[in-house]
Write a structure and sequence with these properties.
It is a single chain. The chain is mostly helical and 317 residues long. The chain contains 17 helices and three strands. Helix 2 runs antiparallel to helix 3 and helix 7 crosses helix 11. 25% of the residues are buried.
Length: 317
């Protein structure tokens, strides 16, 4: 099979230029850029037989991309979400080529993403969250390493729930980013965008207790560390969370559920969507609006407070 990298270099498909553009001008992170590179590699691999016949960028049209997507769906069993990522990557690539004048116009302007079934984010109830915390507190604490692990894990869960930050943001968080006097933290989010999140006293105290058993000589390292002294990875945090979920016998869930739990509980407590959007670091309000769909408790309260007959019934009880 023809190597897509070699083809791209020899026939000047500007892939490296595109990836540099994503890094420098769009300020995207390494993982996101790697995803774009992966998608384009798969696209050019599919085009290999055509490339042997000197296919040019100008010859690639919407039908070509549709054939690629059909191949992924039928032969690679890609789901709609995965196909949409490929569509987005290829469209962004062709938009870049048009912007830089490498092609006259992108042939994919009318290509739309596939409709996805609505998936409501999972969140935990207050009682379920307490069960999770108790699962951590019931861990043994007969050795220094056991105490370290117990205090660290509790601090992670409490801080997650207190702030709603992303798991990658929590894994990268440093002590210097937390203002313990004000109960706030400076978060570096997607696209290196900064925002301030707030930490309640319960979570702040668990973090302080953890810091007491954390290695003192690594103040500028990531806040949450492994027992070997390195930064705790995203995968390690996921494993930790899954362990306690199993221990509580709660339905299978991921650490991301705590971010959803934060947003849902804030909404049910009366916070408006714009404030939640800012705290979560969402770029668009439409992303935050999904929480309206899952806040049944809040909808019930609005109904009882607003409907004349519902109010009359409550007043008579």
């Amino acid at each position: 099979m023809i190597n897509p990298d070699r083809l791209a270099k020899n026939r000047n498909y500007y892939i490296k230029d595109f990836l540099l553009y994503l890094s420098v001008q769009k300020n995207l992170g390494p993982r996101t850029i790697k995803a774009y590179e992966h998608d384009l590699k798969k696209f050019f691999e599919f085009l290999s037989p055509y490339l042997e016949k000197e296919l040019t960028l100008q010859n690639i049209d919407e039908r070509t991309v549709m054939e690629f997507l059909s191949h992924l769906k039928l032969n690679r069993k890609n789901n709609a979400r995965s196909l949409n990522r490929k569509i987005s990557s290829i469209k962004t690539y062709f938009n870049y080529l048009e912007k830089e004048g490498f092609i006259e116009h992108s042939p994919l302007n009318k290509l739309e993403s596939l409709k996805l079934p609505e998936r409501l984010p999972k969140s935990l109830g207050v009682n379920e969250l307490e069960l999770l915390i108790k699962a951590v507190e019931s861990e043994p604490h007969d050795t220094h390493s056991a105490i370290f692990r117990k205090k660290r894990d509790k601090a992670i869960i409490e801080l997650f729930y207190a702030t709603g930050m992303r798991i990658s943001e929590l894994a990268s968080l440093k002590i210097s980013q937390i203002n313990f006097d004000d109960g706030a933290a400076r978060i570096i989010g997607k696209g290196n965008k900064e925002r301030i999140v707030f930490i309640n006293e319960t979570a702040l105290n668990t973090v302080k207790e953890y810091i007491l058993v954390r290695p003192k000589d690594k103040k500028e390292h990531a806040l949450f560390m492994s027992q070997k002294g390195g930064k705790m990875t995203v995968r390690a945090i996921q494993h930790m969370f899954e362990k306690y979920i199993k221990k509580t016998a709660l339905p299978s869930s991921s650490p991301h559920a705590l971010r959803h739990t934060f947003a849902t509980h804030m909404l049910e407590g009366g916070a408006d969507l714009v404030a939640i959007k800012e705290l979560l670091g969402h770029a668009s309000l439409s992303t935050t609006q999904i929480y309206l769909s899952i806040s049944q408790k809040r909808l019930e309260k609005v109904y009882k407070d607003s409907h004349p007959r519902a109010k009359a019934k409550e007043n008579s009880e």
